[in-house]
Each structure stands twice: as C-alpha cells, then as structure tokens.
Prior knowledge:
Elements: H1 2-9, H2 18-35, H3 40-50, H4 57-79, H5 84-95, H6 102-114, H7 118-121
Helix pairs in contact: 2-3, 4-5, 5-6
Amino acid sequence: MAQSVRRLLQKSPFAGTTAVQAREDVAAQVRTGEQSGASTNELEQIVGRAGPPSYSEEELVANENEINHRESLKEKLRAGIADPDEELKVKAALVYPSSWPDEQKLEAARTAQANGNLDSAVTF
Length: 124
C-alpha cells in the first residue's frame, strides 16, 4: 500500500496526459486524506476506488526505453569498464533514480563507494 501511494505521489514527466491526470487526481485525494488524518484503511480505499493505474503510450515507450538503457548499462558493467570514473557513472545511473541530476547521482555514488556500499547496491 505505502509503495503504491508513494508511486502515486511521484511527479510524472508526462503530466497533462489523461492517464497521468487520473493518477495525479488520486494522489491529490490521498494527500488531502493524509492531511485530514485519514486512516491507512481509508487511504487504501481511495487508491482501491481508483482501480489499477493506466499508462499512456508515451509512458509505456519511455518505460521500455529506460529498461533497455538500464540493461545496456548492466551489460557494460558485466563486460568490465577500464575507466574508474566511467564505472562510477554507470553504477550511479543504476543505483539512483533517473529523476536525479547526474551530479547528484555521482555525489551519492561517491559517498556510497567511500562507505563500501556502492557495489552491493548494484543489482544484476
């Protein structure tokens, strides 16, 4: 439940499309419910009434492109990357949200690497 609510509350790059507008409307109802002290059960009912999310053709294509991009990055890692800076960029792209600016991803990756946590965060 919490994950579906979080997903609803994320801002989409496809704002304005019918599918996105429907999800944003539900997210607004959830936010209003949270602010008015609605219980988890009441919030679940709001999400449940909305039914399964629908996606525009543009969103589906963008999602497929993102999946393909991530798979190509994973393949690069498997093959081995000689340049440590390039390897860090690839790991940062795989671990951190695509909505983050590149510099923010790199900064977070450097911190995780310094703490010894970056490699374990990369999943194949």
